[in-house]
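Ticket 4471: requesting a sanity check on a complex prediction with magnesium ion. Repro inputs:
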Amino acid sequence: MGVSEPNAGSGDRPGPRHVAIIMDGNGRWAQARGRPRLFGHHAGAKRVREIVECCPDLGVKYLTIFAFSTENWKRTQVEVAGLMSLFRRYISKEMNALAAQNVRVRFIGDRVRLDAKLIDLMDKLECNTAGNDGTHLTIALNYGGRDEVARATKRLAQDVAAGKLDPEKVDEETLPRYLDTHVLPDPDLVVRTSGEARISNFLLWQSAYAEYEFIDTLWPDFSKEELGRLCTNYGKRDRRFGAVKT
Ligand code: IPE
Ligand code: IPE
Ligand code: MG
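Returned structure tokens:
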């Protein structure tokens, strides 16, 4: 996809066009206040609005956020059920605001384990914002990078078996067309909050050449000012993509 437009990440060159965020640290934020983990998840969900709203000012056209991983089912039934209920509430509550703010929402991840009511709301939000051309917000829900590549490979293999795809022609451009993110550019900047320096199965294929920022802030404390600072840092980085600067 195209080159980034000049923007507020005005260091030496434009800031990131696509920012992906691993929103981590809700549980620790709540624990530090002597509150249950779900209290942290609610505070975390509230942060999302401010971050989505500041994207146009920062020149961030695509924002992708990690809301629930394929591994998060390992948590207690209470936490998983609380998160699913929060997702339903969040979508219902934010539906009109997102549509009015010209945000286009998409979901990535496998829907099979999600309940019918949640899937219905996800479809509605995607449908109600499908005509918008402002910020592209992608929410990763029951998403795992390995799971996504496995599902993509399955569909690719089905196309080969059906004679629709010549295996000799499979190359680096082929697989991404089968990924959940097929309409999105690769992320330029991946941010993880909460001090953990790992990517926990997020956008494995797509982040091959992304710049990373691992910051100590817990997600419920993350702010638009901090995102602005990260965008400025990004503008100062030298992205070589394997080449030598001439
Ligand atoms: C991130 O916060 C939100 C989800 C994974 C759903 P955590 O719940 O992982 O918070 P910590 O890492 O335990 O503090
Ligand atoms: C990654 O955070 C997933 C999300 C932010 C949704 P986790 O808290 O689940 O990751 P680990 O367990 O620290 O790797
Ligand atoms: Mg965590």
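Notes from triage: The first strand starts at residue 18 and ends at 22. Leaving this open until the requester confirms.
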